Batch of 3 targets.
Target 1
Amino acid sequence: MASSESYPDDLLYHPEHDWARIDGDDAVLGVTWYAQDALGELVHYEPPDVGATISKDASYGEVESVKAVSDLISPLSGEVLEVNQKVVDAPETVNEDPYGDGWLIRIRLTNADEQAQLLDLAAYKKVVEEA
């Protein structure tokens, strides 16, 4: 069952509908409720490899839904520390809980200054309203 629309205020957002939960030098990344709702039921997740380097504003993997294949756009640069195996095995977890069990990867930040370029909740809600 899909989750209801929500956007936690403790996250930072990318205009491409990805989120980051920053904890010190690490960040957990995922897609927003809006992204999973627009895509529909996810059927496949192609993650980056652990140890890979990802760059802000660049693709770091793909999700496939019954509607389309979409690139995942990284909100921050870093080294991939962990991939959420639960989402690899059951991609629909993102539809059910995009901010909890549906997180995608955990990274070690390589440029902490990039955080300042992300959107807070109020700014992200404007992006959603204009979409």
Target 2
Amino acid sequence: MQQALYAISLIVPDYDAAIAFYCGTLGWDLAEDIAQTTEHGPKRWVRIVPPGSGEAGSSLILAQARSPRQAAAIGAQFGGRVGLFLKTDNFERDHAAMRAKGIQFEEDPRHEPYGMVAVWQDPFGNRWDLLELR
């Protein structure tokens, strides 16, 4: 048996704002953006992937909040913890590029036994690690 984590859903306030940030500011690839009508009404399937991850890499499914409960979860899906980890092959390069694009880091980069890391937030309040593994 072979299994892999394909995607994780991330609740966002607006599809287009999330696409603008992840694909515009961060330079991710818009892998799929499919509008459809289901028995539950209109639905949009939006899948994004970090550059260089290819079809076999993990991706994010952007899910626009459709209820007050879902809207309340935006930025709090991981209970205030870092819940998303963006792995890079060059921490210094990507950290500098992200800062130049206005990404706010919560801390200075630090060395940990597993690699170089710094915590940042997306515009929706989700906490991420930028991470280069040893």
Target 3
Amino acid sequence: MIAIDTNILIHLYFPSDFSEFSEKVFLKDPNWIAPFLWRSEFRNVILGFFRKKIIDFTKAIEAIEKAEEKMRGGESSVSSIMVMDLAKATKCTSYDCEFVALAKVKEVKLVTWDSGILDAFPQNAITPIIFLE
């Protein structure tokens, strides 16, 4: 089991230079967890793709449905106090700290490309490249 940041999901469903890494992370460990917040972040990115005319609305809804199916059973709430304590101690947003808090509670690594999270939480967060070594 690993915690994943929303960016890992985005690259799994939308071709990019990082998609290959998301696919390999999934093949190595498909048991992904994330705080419920991932849904809002994912929808917001997809909405941006739609508004920039990168995808049509049907493709947007399909991607959301696929991601929700993938993450079903792997979503959790996190302690607000823990999130705020983590955010207070770093320059990370409370959004980012939700992912870190979940990884800490579940005692798993958070796989992310987010440099702010990686810098602030090197004991908890790793890149997909490191995860795949």
